[in-house]
Amino acid sequence: MNWLFQKNPQTSHYHQRKGSIFQRLHIDLALLVLLALLSSIGILILMSAGHENMGLLNRQATRLGVAFIAMFIVAQIPPHVLKMFAPWLFLLGSLLLLGVLFMGDMGKGAQRWLDLGFFRFQPSELLKLATPMMVAWYLAERRLPPSHKHIALATVFIAIPTVLIAKQPDLGTSILIASSGLTVLFLAGISWKIIAGVIAAGASLAPVLWSFMKDYQKQRVLTFLSPEEDPLGAGYHIIQSKIAIGSGGVYGKGWMHGSQARLEFLPESSTDFIFAVFSEEFGLVGCIALLSIYLLIFIRSIYMAIQAQDTFSRLLAGSLSLTFFIYLFVNVGMVTGILPVVGVPLPLVSYGGTSMVTLLIGFGILMSIHTHRKLLSS
Amino acid sequence: MKTHFDLKSSLQENRLFLVRATTLIIFVLILCFALIARLTYLQIETHEKYANLAQNNRVKLSVVSPVRGLIFDTHGRVLAENNPSYSLELVPEQIQDIPETIKQLSALLPITDEEVRLFEKRRKQNKRFASVPLRNRLNDTEVAIFSANRHLFPGVDIQARPLRHYPFPELTSHVVGYVGAINEKELKTINQVNYRGSRFIGKTGIEKTYETELHGYVGYQQTENTAQGRSLKVLSYTPPLSGSDLTLHLDIDLQKIAYDALGDYTGSVVAIDTRTGAVRALVSKPGFNANLFAKGIDQTSYNQLQNSSKRPLFNRSLRGQYPPGSTLKPFIGLAGLDYNAIHPDQKVYCPGFYQLPKQSHKYRDWKKTGHGMTTLHDSIVQSCDVYYYVLAHELEIDRMHHFLHKFGFGQKTGIDILGEKSGLLPSREWKKRTRNQVWYPGETLIAGIGQGFNLTTPLQLAHATAILANKGSANTPSLVANINNKTRTQTKTIPVQLNKPQHWNLIIDAMYDVVNGARGTARKIKEGAPYKIAGKTGTAQVFTIKQDEEYDEDSVVEHLKDHALFIAFAPALNPQLAVAVIVENGGHGGSVAAPIARAVFDQYMTPAP
Questions:
Q1: Is the pTM of the predicted complex or chain greater than 0.90?
Q2: How far is B195 from chain A (nearest CA, A)?
Q3: Active-site residues of B: which are they?
Q4: Which residues of A touch B23 (CB under 8 A)?
Q5: Minimal Cβ distance to A143: which of B9, B18, B58
Q6: B59 touches chain A (CB under 8 A)
Q7: DSSP result, A162-230
Q8: What CATH code is carried by the domain that includes residue B450?
Q9: Full domain range(s) for residue B392
Q10: Tell me: the pLDDT tens digits for A241-263?
């Protein structure tokens, strides 16, 4: 791999920032500590939510291990190499998405998986990273703020995976991918007039979007608007989730003492609704602490984006930071009943594999961007 | 491609990015604030509401039904009990191949397709770990067969549920009554809390009257349950209060003798201990199988009972209202003596009919040729009608009504069982009130021989006989002797006081000769009795014979035949038991009703071996 060793001849008037061992390992210590803390909390909640199912815990720990290793590996790849691969990854991802549409595996009523024989793979996960990379790659080559023509083309790049994934249908991921791409556009400096225009158009197009939604998606929105209408059917999740959170109170019922989850009233307690378990057992105090960790991770990430040295890195890092937070917001929003139930896990805490690996690879990219900076020699 | 390095535009880009990134941070902080606000609302503002909901989710309050009280007869024999009803039940969670298991089970026990269909239906409605019945009401043999093979069927077991059972279902069907499934109407009147776990409620008889005592009080159990309803542990337990056991005065042997003695006739027999008012037998025939109701009767069987011409569901002893006929004569005679309307030795000539002054209508005696010169004594022994036409005319309806009222005619006896009818004791005032008509002298005559408007229930007749036997004093008839071994107090009726107490003996003597005299109407039953019976026969017309018609016993259709009546007490000098017998369409009281009373007395007077 040639690009791993190519720094020597090019560093003639740059020099590597004098750094610690972490610097040389291309690891950001602050971010690593925060991510490890979050993952540990995740394991603890999973012990309670998963009814001390050791198999479940082992699988989650293994996935975390794999994800952290993936993060370290990606952190070693210099940003300009990532940039080079960006369009190809995007192309590959889009083709795989088409593949899923035609020969995908049905899981829970939605076509998301591509069975590659030895393992099942969700191409949408690849696009969570490839989409912002593609848009950042495209815009970084142009003068910013981007012209209308460039904005239009970037929008097409965002729309392709968004539409394909929404068709699977996987509304949650589709929203996350769209927001990651749009964040790049926003950071690239598109004018507020356009933003305002898009929001106005979006509001007026909502009925059209409604007509394109599948029945179960419509049901989720309706349920969100009035969960009490169908307390044993579609509204059951959100009612039980609110009971779990509300009954937690200020200090919670204590670890392993949340009756809602332990007595199985709370559905999907170890996956999408794990935040409700946490809220029930650790109360408002615990929730604020947990949200603070997420906020710190976001702030550290956006700081790294601001520190980035080239446009591609900057746009990509900014987008990855915000997407991570959007993940959290959508999940907590739906569990607490202020957003409709779209299947988005609580980042790094919910049980489930691929999204965790994707998230940590994203942080690997952030670390790479931050630790591969070169300083002008003084 | 290579962008050309432009410091100025680069700085501009940097600044733009910084502004946008800061905007993002502010945006994120706002979102964060929104989440915390939402969490604060849920966990502080509405915490209490959700804490309650969580508690309701967690803790399941289940009822523990009380055991219904038992009912015993006076000798401690069980009249109503709670038997386990066995059902074959399957726990789907513990069975791998349900159709195969059912197939193997049907090799042991007959299982119909309908039962399998019902099982499948119930199985879908229940949780996988819930026990679902496949066959109900297994008999002992079936229970034994399955028990021997139980080890072959994991997840299949026999469950026992208490079911009310009456060991003498026909004999006690009216007096003890029965329980049945609680209906909509009852649901509105019962204490909903207390009946939460109860499926049955007393419908008739003692079961209904003493429902509160028999039912007991419900208990509770709080368990911690999972969302699927599987209970994990018991948090608290309040035991139920079992229903009280009742001991009746009823003697089931006597009840059976009376019931059997009625033979194929419909009718009623009431036997009251004259000393205590204890009801020893309360028979209404035909009875029915009360266990059908306790199990939950099917529509066909119910319709069959409901539409039967013999009306088995009708409790004749309490609700059957019959003209007392000649059984009323001793009481009228006593009234004549007490009002001094007649002298005991005074003779009345009976030509076989009676005419009111200046009227052509002939009031006939049952004996066409007449009884000749008749004293009060003769009039009772031979049941002379003309004597009572004369006496009634003399007494008039007001005095008759006043006197008979003291013996409980026309009013409920106050027995401790619901549904009693009051009969009818006619009076001038009653006729005015209900029919807005004046009283005619002819009606007085008919009333004097216990016909016309007069209606009595068998219980009333027995009670009046007891009062007569005791010479005025008696207790209110009662069925329940004690509740949970606590004796119920007896209440006395207002004693009947005569101006001359020796008048009692005159009437009792006459009744003694009804059975023991050479010309008595019930003389046939005295044969072989080691004790002496005093009684009075009666024959009540079901329909009115026209003036110029003859009553021909053989040509009258069955349901229009006269009712046969007999009232009696024994031993005549030291009374212990008063009996009233009514045999519907039985014909003559002396030949049909009196032997039934004899059988009852024989059973009661013969000391138990």
A1: no
A2: 28
A3: 326
A4: 186
A5: B9
A6: no
A7: HHHHHTTT-HHHHHHHHHHHHHHHHHHT--HHHHHHHHHHHHHHHHHHHHHS-HHHHHHHHHHH-GGGS
A8: 3.40.710.10
A9: 252-302+312-605
A10: 899 999 999 998 888 888 887 77
